[in-house]
Automatic annotation (TrEMBL):
The keyword Ubl conjugation does not apply. Gene3D superfamilies: ProQ/FinO domain. Belongs to the ProQ family. It comes from Rheinheimera baltica. This is RNA chaperone ProQ. The lineage of its organism: Bacteria, Pseudomonadati, Pseudomonadota, Gammaproteobacteria, Chromatiales. NCBIfam families: PRK04950.1 (NF003434). Keywords: Chaperone, Cytoplasm, RNA-binding. Residues 140-169 are annotated as: Disordered.
Length: 236
């Protein structure tokens, strides 16, 4: 057998590459469950965890180093991760072994980043609401005013003409029952999953961005980000 033939692999033996951050984090959580988690309170990561990941996955074609950096940046900047970065909590390595303890300055920095992130999210929500109101105002201004036309008086029948008129039957109003919504349990609420969020009378499709205990952050199709309770979500 030639050397080139010995190095060849079949398509089933090749690793399946992942392309987005969600899939990369899912892969890391599966490979290192004692280090990464997709739900609940995450464990603070060891400083220099990227080098450890790059070394452990150097022969794994599933993810590149660039993808690992991007995934770690998203993971460590999430609200639930920043909230778990508290003074006195030990950082963990890829195998979950505790290491250095978070000091006061590191905890303070994480809290500052968290506050800034929430403030930016609030500003984006305000901007989205203002944009939606402006669009509604523009539509209302462009809509032509309704002009009520005077009622035409029906001609009265002559005295010699008898008009036989049947009484109008009562029109029954049929109220269509609202579609029943099924509450989404914890196992159905996952990062990246689709759920229904009831705003007013109509449920709206949303994508789950973050999960922290009973608080869930979702994004509507319009791009608006909303933080709500898990018991306010329904199956899509």
């Amino acid at each position: 057998m030639k050397k080139s033939e010995a190095l060849m692999t079949t398509p089933t033996e090749q690793s399946v590459k992942v392309s987005n951050v969600k899939d990369i984090l899912t892969y890391l959580a599966a490979q290192f469950p004692a280090c990464f988690s997709l739900t609940g309170e995450p464990k603070p990561l060891k400083i220099g965890i990227f080098q450890d990941l790059a070394h452990r996955l150097q022969d794994d074609a599933t993810v590149s180093k660039t993808q690992l950096r991007q995934a770690l940046r998203v993971y460590t900047s999430s609200w639930r991760y920043l909230e778990s970065t508290k003074e006195g909590v030990a950082r963990v390595d890829l195998d979950g072994a505790p290491g250095d303890v978070i000091d006061a300055s590191q905890a303070e920095h994480a809290n500052k980043v968290l506050d800034e992130s929430k403030a930016k999210a609030a500003e984006k929500r305000k901007a989205k609401i203002a944009e939606a109101k402006a669009k509604q105002a523009t539509v209302a201004a462009d809509k032509p005013a309704y002009k009520k036309m005077p009622n035409k008086k029906a001609p009265s029948p002559s005295k010699s003409t008898k008009v036989h008129q049947k009484p109008a039957s009562a029109v029954e109003t049929v109220t269509q029952p609202a579609p029943s919504l099924q509450k989404a349990s914890a196992e159905h609420v996952v990062v990246g999953g689709k759920v229904l969020l009831k705003l007013g009378q109509s449920p709206m499709l949303a994508t789950v961005l973050e999960i922290h205990k009973d608080d869930v952050t979702v994004q509507l199709g319009s791009g608006m980000v909303i933080k709500t309770r898990q018991d306010s979500l329904y199956l899509a």
